[in-house]
Amino acid sequence: MTSEQSGTILSLSSVTPTITGAEIAAELQPPRQFETASFESYRPDAAYPTQAGAVESLRAFAGAWGVAGAARQPFFSRRKKAVAKPGVYLDGGFGVGKTHLLAALWHVAPGRKYFGTFIEYTALVGALGYAAAVESLKGATLICIDEFELDDPGDTMMMTRLLSELVASGTRIAATSNTPPNSLGEGRFAAADFLREIQALSAHFETIRIDGVDYRQRDSSGHALSTDAAGLDSEVARLVAAGRAVTVDAFGSLIAHLASVHPSRYIKMIRGVDAIALSDVYELTSQTDALRFVAFIDRVYDAQIPVLASGLPLDEVFAADMLGGGYRKKYLRARSRLIALTAEQ
Description:
By secondary structure, the chain is an alpha/beta fold. It contains 13 helices and nine strands. The strands form two sheets. Strands 3-4-5-2-6 form a five-stranded parallel beta sheet, sandwiched between helices. Strands 1-7-8-9 form a four-stranded parallel beta sheet. This is Cell division protein ZapE.
């Protein structure tokens, strides 16, 4: 899809893109909403001192490159006078600004650098093969991994091995993962889970804790917006008349189509799209379908594409047993993002 197609109605269910390893590598940079992210533009919540503390810690980490504005003291400990660890892990709930800070760090890093989600890096390995992926990333100043996932032991071991090779060659690593905000159980043990799962690589990481509440819901009602069929048609017509490229799909059709497209290709499904309209939204009962939808929404959120919907509000599509299961963090993150996306018309 290209900008020439603006002012038209399209269908995501008819798009089956391909993607190469080179294209995946070219996409490894911060999402659109973080193109200008900086330490200065981050707004820490005064109620949570760890947010301001995280900024100072990352400034110190960046100080190893001699960037302007870096902290003068050695990273993390003046008393030890030790060389800074080559990795940092931002530990906190979704919506507390971890991705903003990760992007800010990426922007100040010199030289060749990469920024992507865990799934994008595993897709790169899948497209190029392990050895070629290592060669393509080797020599980078910084590798940023947003939303490091621990669900698949095989992928976790592969990423641990890849990052170990990159660290050995001089590359620095920064990573985040998601935990529910204000959750004393899951939130406090997220760092321990991360460090345990990456095993041998864990000694290279320093943990930076970021507490807080989801900024996307601080000034909102906390619910995704939904309309009826007539309202959806009217809004689509308004956007098309304004020259926008809008996709219109039945929710069930999109869910079925996502099963035929690898998640690494979702980014190309939505390229050139200005708004997404989904009709007849319903509750998902299949865990597999739900996880694919989460991966799709992650890409939509990165691209900051507003979503219109009729039927069930999109933040209610995940069944209660899913929200209480092992993938709870992913579903809560997706709900938060769906609330934000339906509010941006």
